[in-house]
Every structure is written in C-alpha cells, then in structure tokens.
Amino acid sequence: MKLLALDTATNWLSVACGDETRWHELGEPSGEKHSQRVLPLIGEVLAEAGWAVADVDGIAFGSGPGSFTGVRIACGVAQGLAFGINAPLVGVPTLLAMAHAAWREGGTTRAIVCLDARMREVYVAAYWRQDDRWHTCLEPAVVKPQEVRLPQSAGGQWFGLGNGFAVYPELQSITGIARIAPSAAPSARAIGELARPRFAAGEGVAAADARPLYVRHHVALTTRERAAGERL
Question: Average of pLDDT values for 30-49?
C-alpha cells in the first residue's frame, strides 16, 4: 500500500511517502508558511519516490493537537488530495507520532510529549509501548506547565519530547523524566507508519469525514486578554 503522510501542527512542516519497504521524508521550518510550502514539498517527496499523486492508496495526516491553523491546514490538504483521487484518510495524533519517531530512532518505550501551546500552556500526552503497540497513558490535553504530571501508574524512566521543555524549563525537573529532547519535531513518516495498520484494518474514512483533533477550543482573545499580554 502506497501512503502519503503530512503534518503541519507546529512550526515544522513534515511530509513523507512510503510503502511496505521504503520511506521518503522531507521537512523544513516553515513557520507561518505551511499553506504555501506544503504542496510543493509533497510534490518533491513524491518525485523522490517516483510516484504521482494518483498512485497513492491512502493519506495520513497529523490531526493535532497543535496550532489551530496548522492542524486545519493538514486536514484540509489531506481532504483535498484524497477527494481528488478517491483515497481514504487516517488522522494520527501528532504527539503520538512524536513518541513513535523517538522509539524508531532510539528505542524509546515511555514518552511524555509537551508542545508549547502559547497562552502559558502546553499540549501534553504520555505513551507507553508494550507488545509492539502504543498505549495511551495520558490523553492529549492542554494544561498549564505546573499542572503537567506523569501518569500515576507510570513506572520506569520517561523520555521528554517537544519544545514545551525548552519554553518551560521547569518541566525538565519532573520526577521520573530521565532525559529530554526539546528539539524533537513531528515526523510525517511516523504518522504514515502508525496509519498503515489502521488502513489495513479498514479504518480509513472518506475525505468529508476527516477531522482534526482539537483539545483547545478557545482560539480568539478578548480585549482584556490582549491587554494582559496573552497570545495564541
């Protein structure tokens, strides 16, 4: 099965395509230019693989949480491409994909992922890998940095991933976190790898039914919040 995957939930733009034997992945720090760069980068990664868009059997996208605009871009682009080629879609939580990439690259089996959510908050989730599958120990949520906790049932040493650990250094001192990678970014290849068994299980949906994962629904500031220096 030939898959295309993308993520635009953070400042890092990542796209990938692959099948059962090989993956091609490209990424760049696009900031607020995701909408301008995502299609050209998809074109480049497909060219690397020697594929046309019409060759793709399924499309996976990072569903969030992350930037409100970013997760909508990923979902919207995936929907548009999937509609054009009548391909199914699978949304994969961005934080889970970051944990999966850390496992593939370094064998990490316990990961707590924190991304800066602005407004003095972080997006956080925790995952544990056992028996060749990921278990969600802490569902994706948006909280204040001082509210971040490892799951009560957590054992062993945990790996902290994401720029939340750089923006809020106090997170680095949470008991049970043995090491951190504050520069870790979402990986489209990881999204594709996590989506593959879901496609095989028939969990792909039509373009019209794909949805981003929002854990914050407050996406605009009041006059008082702006005056107080809040930002989204």
Answer: 95
Output the CA torsion sign for 154, 156, 157, 161.
negative
Domains of the chain listed by start with CATH number:
3-93+186-223 (3.30.420.40), 95-181 (3.30.420.40)
Q: Which residues are within 8 A (CB) of 62 and not within 5 positions of it... i.e. 6 or more apart?
A: 6, 7, 8, 9, 14, 71, 74, 91, 92, 93, 94, 97, 186, 188, 191
Four-point Cα dihedral 72, 31, 36, 101, nearest 10: -70
pTM: 0.91
Residue with the larger pLDDT of the pair 35 and 32: 35
Chain centroid offset of residue 140 CA: 11
Mean pLDDT of 16-23: 96
Helix (H) or strand (E) holding 159: strand 158-161
Structure tokens at 205: 């949906």
